[in-house]
Amino acid sequence: MKEKFYVTTPIYYPNDVPHIGHAYTTIVADVLARWNKLRGKEVFFLTGTDEHGKKIETVAKSKEKKPKQFVDELVPKFKEAWSKLNLEYDSFIRTTDKNHEKIVREVLQKVYDKGDIYKSVYEGNYCTGCEAYYTEKDLVDGKCPIHKTKIEKLKEESYFFKLSKYQKDLLKLYKDNSEFISPKKRNKEIINRVKEGLKDLSISRTSFDWGIKIPFDEEHIVYVWFDALLNYYSATREKGKEKFWPADVHIIGKDILWFHAVYWPAMLLSVGIELPKKIFAHGWWTFNNEKISKSRGKVINIDELISIAGVDSARYFLLRATPFGDDGDFSEQALIDRHNNELADKLGNLVSRVSALIEKYGTEKCENKLIKKLNEKKIEKLFENYEFDKVLNEIFAFIDVCNEYVQNKKPWETKDKKVLSELKESILKIAYLLEPFIPLSAEKIKKQFSVTKINKGKILFEKIK
Ligand code: MSP
């Protein structure tokens, strides 16, 4: 039986078209999926949209649309964007899918039967942008700490999930399994906050109705995060998909770590469902050192991202420019520089020189001394640690070695077919290692160098002025 690998992205709010922040998480998940597939694993890569809740309802209303009609129009924009970025997800879940709604109600009923849900009154602050409850202490000048917008004062009857009951279990989970929350610095943050104490979580609303009805009280609808988090599980409650649970990794942004590291495992502990193995929270991108924000016009949508230097270069930049887990700054110039200096001058140059030489002189198989300079084990290890920038550094260091080899061995003078054979094999190995990151270009290289008669093909990466 094949080893399985299940990776997820957050499900995005379809309240607007996707931007570079959404693209980043989804590209990383795609790289993980492709990498594991290439290593023989049976992969399930899930993405989708988070369609219920006040936020969606409000935006839809402002456009004079019914929420379902509104999201139905936006979902194709996400799918188009992911296809433009060459993302090969296996399933796209929508929280309005019937199967998902059914699972949410079933799980909720189980939590209720277990005695982990009670009715009370919620009184406090709510940010619709975050779809989250805030204590007075969390607020900044009385406003949402993330959106800096006015907070909604809520007082309504609500069902509560006994989150506080799971404080000890959660702390034990983080302690016994130090890899559960990654990177390490985030682990500490969560542990400290959980140690301060957990309040029970309001999991139902009555003041609007765009959501899933609570099975034991149809006047209430399910809190959008309780609904949304369950997507990771409900997507595997379909024929042939059951084996994929538990998820190997949930890739998310640091802003939604609390929901994933605290609410999510507590919900699963309550119903006795196996926990996911890892939650990896990445950092945030700024754009020319400013926060990406719609209100100030600082967004990059997918077409803009791709138009700068192509799909592969965009994917490459996002994974290379900053360590996974840290914040990063995006600028058009920085992307162009990496495209020109690394993809074109190093990789592109190697491929075009070697293919031209092979076209002229041919190859002859021999022991490959060159490829021994590539530390593949190290690269595999770095990848397993989610150090994608270092993986790419290592691969590009080997590309440098190959370019120097051409320079030193001067096969255009010696016509040494053995040297060219070493280079050919090394290039194929490079393509294999780079394929998850730059699949279109890697595919071209593989095609070019796998045939009996190798030709100098088209330029892989045109330089950008
Ligand atoms: N619907 C919730 C997730 C539910 S998962 C069960 C949600 N959606 S979102 O559309 O607002 O955001 C999704 C993701 O985009 C988050 O992981 C967030 O970190 C990421 N990003 C949004 N802006 C970003 C940047 N500027 N940079 C990097 N990632 C960013 O939250």
Can you walk me through this structure?
There is one protein chain. With 465 residues, this protein is of the alpha/beta class. It has 17 helices and 16 strands. The strands form 4 sheets. It has a 6-stranded parallel sheet with strand order 3-2-1-12-13-7, with helices on both faces. It has a 4-stranded antiparallel sheet with strand order 5-4-6-8. Strands 9-11-10 form a 3-stranded antiparallel sheet. Strand 10 (213-214) and strand 11 (217-222) form a beta hairpin. 5'-O-[(L-methionyl)-sulphamoyl]adenosine is lined by residues 10-13, 21-22, 24-25, 50, 228-229, 231, 252-253, 255-256, 284-285, 292. Residues 10-13, 21-22, 24-25, 50, 228-229, 231, 252-253, 255-256, 284-285, 292 line the site of 5'-O-[(L-methionyl)-sulphamoyl]adenosine.
Describe the biggest sheet?
A: 6 strands, parallel
**In what range is the share of β-strand residues?**
15-25%
Given the structure, what is the number of helices?
17
Q: What is the β-strand count? A: 16
Write the layout of secondary structure elements.
Blueprint: E1 4-12, H1 20-38, E2 42-49, H2 54-62, H3 67-84, E3 91-94, H4 98-113, E4 117-127, E5 132-134, E6 152-161, H5 167-176, E7 181-182, H6 184-195, E8 201-202, E9 204-205, E10 213-214, E11 217-222, H7 224-229, H8 231-234, E12 249-253, H9 257-271, E13 279-282, E14 285-287, E15 290-291, H10 302-309, H11 311-320, E16 328-330, H12 332-361, H13 376-384, H14 388-409, H15 411-414, H16 417-434, H17 439-450
Parallel strand pairs: 1-2, 1-12, 2-3, 7-13, 12-13, 14-16
Antiparallel strand pairs: 4-5, 4-6, 6-8, 9-11, 10-11, 14-15
Bound molecules: 5'-O-[(L-methionyl)-sulphamoyl]adenosine (MSP).
